[in-house]
Amino acid sequence: MDLHLLLQLSINGLIVGTLYGVVGMCFVLIYKASQIVNFAQGEFLLIGAWVCWWLLTKYHLPFVWGFLVTLAFMVAFGFLLQVVVLRPMIGEPVISVIMMTIGLSIFCQALMKWIFGVLPQPYPQVFAVKSVNIFGLEVQTVYLMAMAISLVIMVGFAWFFKMSRTGLAMRATSFDQQVAQSLGISVRQVFAVSWAISAMVSAVAGVVVGVVNGVSSALSFFGIKVFPAVILGGLDSIVGSVLGGLVIGVLENWAQFVDSQFLKWGNLYEVAPFYVLIVILMIKPYGLFGKRDIERV
Amino acid sequence: DYPIGHLNDFSGGTADVGKPYGQGVDDALAYINAHGGINGTKLAVDATDYGYQVPRALAAYKNWTGSNKVVAIMGWGTADTEALVKSVTDDQIPFVSASYAGTLTDPTGKGGPASERAAPYNFFYGPSYSDSARALVQWAAEDWKKKGGQGKPKWVHMGANHPYPNAPRKAEEEYAKELGFEVLDPVVFALTPGDYTAQCLTLKQSGANYAYLGNTGASNIAVLKSCETAGVKVQFVGNVWGIDENSLKAAGSAGNGVVFPVRTAALWTDNVPALSLFKEIAKNSDPSGKEYKAVHYLAGVCAAFYLKEAMEWAAANGGVTGPTIAKGFQAKANWVPKGTEGVCKPSTWTAEDHRPTLSVELYQTQVTGPTDSGTVSELIAKGTMKLNKVATIELPRKKEWIGY
Amino acid sequence: MLTFNEFKGSRGFREGADARQRGGTKGGDLPVTTDPVLVARDVSIRFGGVKALTDVSFEVKSGELFSIIGPNGAGKTSLLNCISGRYRPTAGSIHLLGRDVTHLKPNKRAAIGIGRTFQNLALFGHMSVLDNIMVGRHHLLKNNFLSGALYWLGGAQKEELAHRREVEDIIDFLEIEAVRHATAGTLSYGLRKRVELARAVALKPKLLLLDEPMAGMNLEEKEDMARYILDLNEEWGMTIVMIEHDMGVVMDISHRVMVLDFGRKIAEGLPADVLEDEYVKKAYLGEELPGLEAEEAAA
Amino acid sequence: MATATLRPCGDFKSRYAADQTIFPTVWSRNFCILGVVLVAAAPFLVDRYVLNLLIQIGYLGIAALGLNILVGFTGQISIGHAVFFGFGGFASCFLNSNAGIPPVLSIPLAGVMTTAVGLVFGIPAARLKGLYLAIATLAAQFILLDFFGRAEWFTGGSNGTVADPVSLFGFKFNHDESYLYVVLFYVVVLYVAAANLMRTRDGRALVAVRDYYLAAEMMGVNLTKYRTLSFGISSFYAGIGGALYAHYLGFMSIEGLDISFSIQFLAMIIIGGLGSIMGTLMGTAFMVLLPQLVNFLARSLDGSAIDHALGLHEGLPFLREMTIGAAIILFLIFEPDGLAHRWKQIKAYWKLYPFSY
Amino acid sequence: MGQMSAATAEMPTIATPAEPAPLLTVNNLEVVYNDVILVLRGLNLKVPEGEIVALLGANGAGKSTTLKAISGLLKAEDGQITRGDVLFRGERLNGLDPDQIVRRGIFQVMEGRRIVADMTVHENLRLGAHTRRDGGVRDDLDRVYGYFPRLKERTGLAGYLSGGEQQMLAIGRAIMARPKLILMDEPSMGLSPLLVKEVFLIIRRLARDLGLTILLVEQNARLALEAASYGYIMEQGKIVLDGTADALKSNEDVKEFYLGQGEARKSFKGLKSFKRRKRWL
Ligand SMILES: Nc1ncnc2c1ncn2[C@@H]1O[C@H](COP(=O)(O)OP(=O)(O)OP(=O)(O)O)[C@@H](O)[C@H]1O
Ligand SMILES: Nc1ncnc2c1ncn2[C@@H]1O[C@H](COP(=O)(O)OP(=O)(O)OP(=O)(O)O)[C@@H](O)[C@H]1O
Ligand SMILES: [Mg+2]
Ligand SMILES: [Mg+2]
């Protein structure tokens, strides 16, 4: 057994896991506000990554500015989505809205390909120091940035849902839109806020992935990859999604370790999280931190 | 008119390479039509972008074999080509794919011992995946000796567990063992880009010397980048669709030094007379004529021109129908379509063997600076990105290699 | 909608009903038979810190109409849930028809013969009223997904139609013919309660548990409901346990009454006796509370 | 009292049997019969392109119906339907080429085998609810797909495997013209079976579980059994659909069995109408025909004046994809309850799904 | 019918000319569900400021529908106002979103409790005050806990509360909102007799002390008419009778069918042998 390799893989898992966590939080945010699982989350990443790329390469903005403009754009985009697509769906069956996000993902995917082409594009060098050495593992600086940002976002979200009025309103909306409306909550507003924030935070992840791997339409696959993370943590738990992300990230890497050292299956890396996911769900049907359904008659 | 079907992927999962290739085919067919067609008869080309989705390819195929039956099809990917093998055989429609799987090279079904089925109407231009991989193995063996490597070099296959990356695996690993490599367990990574640091770390730890990248552009780029960060020192070799000018730009410095096969005898910027024809053809989609065209574009044009000449042969020998076109492909040996000499490589199809060529050109990428700004054309013109020929491998035409 | 006259004759269910003497019993009269249908012994249940039930024991005799009353949150519904299997008591046991059912799953208990209605309506909202009631027949039907899918071949059709007839009897009885094909979720509150009752009755239960059947009904409808319950008890011979806050109804129709407060049984007996209990008067009926007029005057 | 039924006036039923039929009106039954007859006559009327579309609608429609039984009727979302479809295809090929069982038998047998697999993957359904279960099925998608890629003995590994054409008494159904009848046969049988199922005991139990599982359990419905069973039934349909697909193509490989295929199945049933049997077929037709239609439009646009004016040529493929996405979105905005809703004019079941309990 | 005015579909005739304009007026309202099911057929109703008005009627008469039409919550159930209008202080409310209506000061206590099950009692109450910007929230919290001490003891999720406790919470939420007009749909449902009395006391106090106006749908007609100053009786989507509470209380039909004081009154036990249907139309 190569302990050094295991250590490196673990660190790598934590780092990738944080990114899963960030995207996971976006899922949870929307879910908490509307019970909708957003299948277009991956496209949000993609749009964020492309927009930032475009600002950086075409207008040669400094990264920080490009990044901020991207975030602002994504907020606007989230609002726009709400107005054009989601508003008519208020009060409609949740599953239809979920399907609609699938339509949205098809639409955005094609639109991005049309605008930015089908070829992958590299990001310019963003940080002076491209990577930092941690226990012998070269870690990209941008990953560290992502870790910091996601921590801040997580704390913010946790506070938001527990304490703020809008947070409460979101939870009520997701429980029952009619009830929420009867309490004077504007479902539109709740949707707008949650989609805007979610789009914005996704863009953070999108830019990070873009910086590391370059942008291409396949980046949206990330949206599917974080499903196990979110479920593992519990669909409605912000903390859970981050922890779930970390667990899945580390698991993937450990699976890779076990695979390469012992099993020689080849792609344990891809499927192991799903095996573990099922096992965990059989023990804890609502994930690690998910709230149980209230079963009272 | 001769109805021709053209399946392409400009928008789906393989669009990154499907675009330049399909563009090449498109332009070539348009050029052919603009210059007299097939002995005066035009081609009625019906191009369908099927987005790399088999059912759509199927629907398109049925459409083409309905009332106005096509005489030949320019195809694209692995999945659809495989799904249509039986149909095109039954319907006797020559199918020129851009899938170079070894299984398509056996027209009789009795080729080599590993051959599974007959594919008499499947054609492609260029070395098969398996032969390209063998050529890379052979090159690696020489490279190892040349560099004075000690002991057994280690070879590893990387790619998703999918038909396309797996197609050459058996041939490649067998040949590697034959040439004295130690073949490691394959490293699996998905067809989509992601963070592959984990794979790279294990790759590094395994001590491989040569790694074969079996996936398509985007995911290979991700691997190259991850491996660069992880500090992996391996000689990467790639599949034909694995790396090209566009993906090289995306990979940047991480893509430096990859060796990969090229189907044509020349690149866009080379000094070969026949390239002027290609440049003329390219004006169809790029009137300015300034754009650099990737290796896939050239291959697409060549493929279309082979079909053209096969059809011309058919026209002169009993009429343009599926079976006569297929015969047209097999009529000559070591032939090059007129006007493309020096670019398209001489190819031979026979009734028993559909491996057009066993001569593989190997190139190596070279990146000397940041690639994030500027177009591919500019980067090539500036010399920031370069493709250098490293070898031409001539493989023996072994009968037992037919069909895999 | 036609009222299926041709099948009116086939009400095997209620045979001999008219022969039985009716209307003569007053509150407190004991039913004919006395063997217990339901025996609960020292039933306790707690949720975290909340002791919803503490050592509650009681018996319900065959043919009895037994009412449970008590302040809000006293544990009445929890007790019903323990009997029907939704909750598993933390201690104690429940016997049904001489059989220990404490660890049986709810669906098994339904098959033994417990039917119930729910305090917060629990209809299958998107199904038709008819289908809702037919679900009640689940354990009585024999066809399965194979014979059901074959329908005409496996005898499923015959069976379904036979049961449909009996269900129509129940529909007639509860006077919901008009909404037979309506989607349950669109009915008004009161009608839904009635459909729920129909569904529970369709189960052919030996023990029927009713959780506040009169809630949300006006006087007239309460009268109707009381009539249905009495009919079920006396003519269809069902043993009934009922939770209800309307004291008028409880006193008039039940044979015996049990009072729960803070999860404990504080009284049990004939309605009139229970009504006299001082504690009940004060903590449940609030007789000491000033009336609205008095309050007005005080202000 | 308002009756919420929307039967035509005068359509009174005087016998229970008549009131229990699959078709709410005589008209709708005749319409269905007419549809079957028309399809049966199709080989004489239309070309192979249309036949191919009909066949696609057929085998996908069967699989989609399975998914609708699971999602629409039982309320358990599955994002892994494609692999069960694939399993059926592989199983039939396997039985056919390894055990020499003729396709006539191997297709139903493949359905049975898929049922078994479905039951195994349905085990979590007994414990998991809503989206947690949905993601567990996503896990099934990845796990089974990985299995397909690796189990060379069964699937031919990543190379795929070949299948014989269906033949009966020496007649080979190896052309679209004849294969259409095979598919039509299965469609009719399986759709009628599903309609029957839904009006009998077990079908009602499934719907009851969807609507209010706690109440269903107390009405005597065994939750574990029915939740798992619905996976079994759903897989059976998927398996048959997949097997029909394999024998149609004569070839089966794992390419194409990815999540997006699973999601496409979901799209079919949501657009058709959850919990509606005929709606499933309509939804399938919509999803099969939409790309064709858009393709057709794109083609007629290609090279036209509009194309030149807007310079669309480059973007046409993307425009086409976008149109498909937009069509789904618009469709849902205007008909969130699916085609069946419009078709029957009866308020669909799904107002509060899946969070009504 | 003595001093009572029989309600007609065309013109409601309750208000005497001298009275100020009522807070809420419902004119000739028609409501249709799913585009086909006509439930309200020209309903007229007035609620004067500061008063408690009772709306009585049989199951399925359309009482809840009326309230939902006023508060705009119909939309979520595929219901639609097809004719007539709802005026609040002269402003037309038709077509407004429910949350906007709440912001104008109309709050509905919905039938069947409808508390947010996966939040705590405290959070539910805070939600009630969602639209409030003033600082009195804390005081009102204390007020609610004062009315219903039992709620204070319940710290878990609201979904686990007993039926009656949930009803208390639903009423408490309305108090937290401090609207101008509360639409109460069967507030006494599922409450113990003691609490029913208390709830009516509370309703009275709210109207008197805080100046709230209340439109009360209630099956307990006796208490409702005791608390209210005016009453409407509706059947099949129309008002069939209205008058001051006292007048209604002494109406023979109301006595018999709603208050159970008619001559024919028997014990519940004795009712089974005969069956009547009231016909007021
Ligand atoms: N599943 C549960 N989890 C936590 N607490 C519960 C649960 N079920 C009941 N309780 C608590 O137990 C107590 C008794 O509840 P129950 O529903 O039995 O009361 P009840 O007598 O039916 O009252 P009501 O007349 O108001 O319906 C309540 O305080 C309730 O909060
Ligand atoms: N969502 C809906 N879809 C269709 N019909 C409905 C819907 N909601 C209510 N109805 C119908 O409207 C009529 C009136 O219902 P409503 O709930 O207003 O009655 P209600 O007077 O409140 O009765 P209850 O005292 O039983 O609560 C009923 O016949 C009911 O079936
Ligand atoms: Mg209760
Ligand atoms: Mg009501």
Automatic annotation (TrEMBL), chain A:
**Entry superkingdom:** Bacteria
Going by the UniProt record, its keywords in alphabetical order are: Amino-acid transport, Cell membrane, Membrane, Transmembrane, Transmembrane helix, Transport
> Can you tell me where the transmembrane regions are?
6-30, 37-56, 62-85, 97-116, 142-161, 190-214, 226-251, 272-289
- Where are the annotated coiled coils located? none
Instruction: Give any Gene Ontology cellular component.
Output: plasma membrane
Biological process (GO), any one: amino acid transport
Name of this protein:
Branched-chain amino acid ABC transporter permease
UniProtKB/TrEMBL annotation, chain C:
Q: Which UniProt keywords apply?
A: ATP-binding, Nucleotide-binding, Transport
GO-annotated cellular components:
plasma membrane
Q: Does the keyword Zinc apply?
A: no
Identify the residues that the record assigns to the ABC transporter domain, covering every copy: 38-287
- Which residue intervals are annotated with compositional bias (Basic and acidic residues) in the record? 8-21
Is this entry keyworded Glycosyltransferase? Answer: no
**Annotated spans, Disordered:** 1-31
Gene3D superfamilies, from UniProt?
P-loop containing nucleotide triphosphate hydrolases
**One GO MF term attached to the UniProt entry:** ATP binding
What PANTHER family does this protein map onto? ABC TRANSPORTER ATP-BINDING PROTEIN (PTHR45772:SF1), CONSERVED COMPONENT OF ABC TRANSPORTER FOR NATURAL AMINO ACIDS-RELATED (PTHR45772)
Which named protein is this? ABC transporter ATP-binding protein
From TrEMBL, chain D:
Keywords of the record: Cell membrane, Membrane, Transmembrane, Transmembrane helix
Q: Which InterPro entries match?
A: ABC_transp_permease, LivM-like
What CDD domains has UniProt attached to this entry? TM_PBP1_LivM_like
Q: How does it sit in the membrane?
A: Multi-pass membrane protein
Source organism superkingdom:
Bacteria
Gene Ontology MF, one: branched-chain amino acid transmembrane transporter activity
Pfam families for the chain: BPD_transp_2
**Where in the cell does this protein reside?**
Cell membrane
For this protein, the parts annotated as crossing the membrane are: 26-46, 58-84, 104-123, 130-149, 178-198, 228-249, 261-290
| Keyword hit for Membrane | yes
A GO CC term assigned to this protein in UniProt: plasma membrane
The name this protein carries in UniProt is Branched-chain amino acid ABC transporter permease
Question: What species is this protein from?
Answer: Aliidongia dinghuensis
From TrEMBL, chain E:
Matching entries from Gene3D superfamilies are given as:
P-loop containing nucleotide triphosphate hydrolases
Give the species.
Aliidongia dinghuensis
A single MF term (Gene Ontology): branched-chain amino acid transmembrane transporter activity
The entry's keywords = Amino-acid transport, ATP-binding, Nucleotide-binding, Transport
Alphabetical GO biological process terms: L-amino acid transport
Taxonomic placement: Bacteria, Pseudomonadati, Pseudomonadota, Alphaproteobacteria, Rhodospirillales
Q: Where is the ABC transporter domain?
A: 24-261
- Family under the similarity heading: Belongs to the ABC transporter superfamily.
Which is a Pfam family this sequence falls into? ABC_tran
Record's keyword annotation contains Transport: yes
InterPro entries given for it? AAA+_ATPase, ABC_transporter-like_ATP-bd, ABC_transporter-like_CS, BCAA_Transport_ATP-bd_LivF, P-loop_NTPase
Q: What is this protein called?
A: ABC transporter ATP-binding protein
The keyword Cell cycle is assigned to this record: no
